[in-house]
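User: Hi! I'm working on a homework problem where we have to compare a predicted structure to a textbook description. Could you give me the structure for the chain below?
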Amino acid sequence: MNITINGKTCTCEKGEFLLEVARRNGIPIPTLCHHPALAGQGSCRVCLVEVDEGRGPKIVVSCVYPIQRECTVETDSERVRRERGMVLALLRKRAPESRRIAGMCRLYGAPELPRLTPADTGKCILCGLCTRACTELSVGAISTVNRGVLKEIATPYHEPSTVCVGCGACANVCPTEAIPLTETAETRTIWGKTFQLVRCASCGRILGTREELELAAKRCGQEPETLCERCRKAATAQILADVYGD
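Assistant: Happy to help. Predicted structure tokens:
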């Protein structure tokens, strides 16, 4: 079927999420809680757009809105910018130290909301990407703890996790850089725990932490990797050349 986004005709399949169709057609929609490796969850609500299916326009969350019929979409209308600005203003109160949110607030003219007290510090917007990445891609070392204004992402009892492998998946998907991760030439530190880094035996490129590689090997039923992908391909090519000739 065809839909119209900002005046552009876009082809899509029934049931596709609106955000995916827009991005496939080069139409930007801002997001914070969306990541291509994880299914949409609509928690940040920054990706609001205006949809008209013939019964009048309505505001929807594009990352979790499945297209069911032909419609007209506006991603940057006055109403969208106003409501998106309000969402960002609230997120700024939650994460006053986030430079990314501050920049988006300026871009969309977010109001100041002086009557609301901001959090004292912090960058986390509780989007849940980090916990999902840790659960789905790694070992489930972190989770949401406490309730209300005390809700946060943490390891059990705020102690270094016994199961964390230091893969950094949580920090990599975090949209606001709320999870500190530091590296030296030999170590990686995250969630109060320091891990030894393993490097490619051929080129010296970082492969990951020892625990991360051991976990991956266990899941695959193989020995831990000692070469990076590029060096593995080069080694395989050399073996084939030796066997079959140039």
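For your comparison, note the following. The mean pLDDT is 94. The chain has two domains: 2-107, 129-240. Good luck with the assignment!
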